[in-house]
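Morning - iron/sulfur cluster inputs below, output right after.
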Amino acid sequence: MYRPAYLELLVTGELDKRIEKLYQILESCELCPRRCHKNRLSGERGYCGAGAQLMVSSYHPHFGEEAPLVGGSRGLFSTDGFGLTPSGGSGTIFLTNCNLLCVYCQNYDISHLGEGREVAIDEAVAMMLALQNRGCHNINLVTPTHYAPQLVKAIKLAATGGLHLPVVWNCGGYENIEVIKLLDGIIDIYMPDIKYGNGGAAKRYSNAPDYFDRCREAVREMHRQVDDLRLNQRGIAYRGLLIRHLVLPGGLAGTKKVLDFIASEISKSSYINIMDQYRPAGEAYDYPELNRYPSRQELVEAQKMAKELGLTRLDEK
Ligand code: SF4
């Protein structure tokens, strides 16, 4: 049985050192490339809207994530070599606020409007252990970037209390590489979005013109740490990199550049979910070019591009 990396760091005491370093960053916040330099510990809030305290919108087993996280074909059962077995789902914890704040955010209420409630670290620990007790296959931290110190502290305390599931860092891809380095040996599965392959769209829709540069740095480091996604004999992921890319209408996401980067600089064996679920949401109605669904043709084209680049490990719906 796979033993998550953080259990090693717990034994050596390294986990405490990382927590200390992460909390130091929070004093003049540089947890993400926006580098707001707000003293989050004293309650100041930066661009993301997050303060000192963790905020959680919801937590539950999720059966709509990628099959290697859910433990089946996005359903309640997996038909693996063991026959029809119940799927435990992915143990998602949805964090409130976001450091990217895309205008078309598909979870607008949580990211922009701050839906959720403040949660003490002990309660976050209890959530992790409850998800494990429910039979989930992993702890899936959704939009964790702006709460890295608090979450790593919760992982440490949960590990002390018996947590032994791999932790998924399910982020928007706008990361500070120095923070990602501090997560080395703590996170087993990185699941970044690569949202844009060009600065223009990143500026217009996420106010982050350096998005692709920062994202590429971070994804290279993530891959260096955990390599390609590995599955156990039941088809469940236990370590590695899983990349998501949401296709925007009209080629706005720069899909070709994103896929080129993955194929040439990460690995042709990268597990990639080319997501087709974009719908106009949030402020997208104010941007005529975003105010429609991607066409069937655009989605087929994205899949075709990936295959032509030799990227064949694509998530199957
Ligand atoms: S995490 Fe939030 S406060 Fe910290 S640098 Fe990023 S946007 Fe600013």
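Note: Residues 74-85 have pLDDT under 50 and may be disordered.

O.
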